[in-house]
């Protein structure tokens, strides 16, 4: 399984730290050329490698760590996302009317035709997400939700590998509503920093 993080700002770098901590290879990309990202990638760890967006999307699993509306640009990087898993770590707040009442990740999923989309790693502030998820007494919880049942298991396995305790919430508009904003209200689990004894 190969991994890429698209967006190398606060959340992208927080996730890169999580991969580096466990020596798992990950590509990072943004609109800037890889040379511009390379010093920061190297500073995080040797398993974090900056590439162009076009090369990054060759990975099997792509994590979106970009401003919400930029998902439409990133989706254009491939004609079809068949066979790919997309982990949507984006949030949008307040929720714009253009989403037609859809959970924001269901709106994102529409742009990534053919991909298996899982919402995850979106509910913590970046500084918390960057910290070691293994603390005395437990593993930091990340919430996963998806309309595609088969998609969640490999993402849960990745979350575990990174040291997090994944908690599956079910479909995007059911349990997933807890980690989506609605109008001007954050979902109840957003920013909740929780721990589980067992992964
Ligand atoms: N910050 C938080 O605490 C937090 C917490 C939970 C969720 N989130 C969500 O996570 C997402 C990222 O937030 P952030 O705080 O990390 O933002 P950020 O610090 O502004 O970083 C955004 C990154 O996306 C890149 N980017 C923008 N447009 C792009 C495009 N079209 N293609 C490729 N890369 C692009 C930017 O780099 P270039 O300018 O070089 O392209 C930058 O590296 C947002 O959706 C936010 O709602 C943030």
Automatic annotation (TrEMBL):
Residues 3-91 form the Pyrroline-5-carboxylate reductase catalytic N-terminal domain. One of its GO terms (molecular function) is cupric reductase (NADH) activity. Gene3D superfamilies: NAD(P)-binding Rossmann-like Domain (3.40.50.720). Keywords: Oxidoreductase. This is NADP oxidoreductase coenzyme. It holds the Pfam family F420_oxidored. One of its GO terms (cellular component) is plasma membrane. It comes from Mesorhizobium temperatum. One of its GO terms (biological process) is copper ion import.
């Amino acid at each position: 399984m190969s991994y890429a993080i698209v967006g190398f700002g606060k959340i992208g770098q927080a996730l890169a730290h999580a991969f580096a901590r466990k020596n798992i290879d990950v590509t990072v990309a943004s609109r800037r050329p890889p040379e511009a990202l390379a010093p920061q990638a190297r500073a995080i760890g040797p398993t974090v490698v900056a590439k162009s967006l076009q090369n990054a999307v060759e990975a099997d699993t792509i994590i979106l760590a970009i401003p919400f509306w930029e998902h439409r640009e990133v989706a254009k990087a491939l004609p079809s996302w068949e066979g790919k898993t997309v982990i949507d770590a984006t949030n949008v707040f307040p929720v714009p009317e253009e989403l037609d009442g859809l959970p924001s990740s269901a709106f994102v999923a529409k742009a990534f035709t053919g991909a298996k989309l899982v919402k995850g790693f979106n509910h913590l502030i970046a500084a918390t997400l960057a910290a070691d998820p293994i603390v005395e007494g437990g593993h930091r919880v990340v919430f996963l939700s998806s309309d595609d049942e088969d998609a969640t298991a490999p993402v849960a396995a990745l979350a575990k590998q990174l040291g997090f305790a994944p908690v599956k919430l079910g479909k995007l508009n059911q349990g997933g509503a807890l980690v989506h904003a609605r109008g001007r209200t954050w979902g109840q689990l957003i920013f909740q920093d929780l721990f589980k004894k067992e992964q």
